[in-house]
Write a structure and sequence with these properties.
Helix content: over 70%
Order of helices and strands: H
Oligomer: single chain
Number of strands: 0
Structural class: mainly alpha
Number of helices: 1
Radius of gyration: 38 Å
Largest sheet: none
Distance between the termini: 133 Å
């Protein structure tokens, strides 16, 4: 009976030791996944910010072109319909 208790005690110590290492392995693996996910999120956030910045600049440029085209058409049509007097 003493042998069985010693065996169970050693078995429990081994299981506890294995469980600790298994838990540590799973925890480290999950931390690695979390850090990798955080890197991906940071990268995609930078891409998103860059894209948003480009869209803002493009819309600003597009607005300037639209205003320039409008002014050009107004001056062109004003000159086109100008009444010229023949002297």
């Amino acid at each position: 009976m003493y042998c069985n208790i010693a065996f169970h005690s050693k078995f429990l110590q081994t299981c506890t030791h294995c469980a600790f290492h298994l838990y540590r392995y799973v925890l480290l693996k999950n931390m690695h996944v979390l850090l990798y996910s955080h890197d991906i999120v940071c990268f995609l956030s930078a891409v998103n910010d860059n894209t948003n910045s480009r869209v803002v600049w493009w819309s600003f440029f597009e607005s300037l072109v639209l205003v320039a085209m409008t002014l050009g058409q107004v001056f062109y049509l004003k000159r086109f319909f100008e009444v010229r007097r023949v002297v």
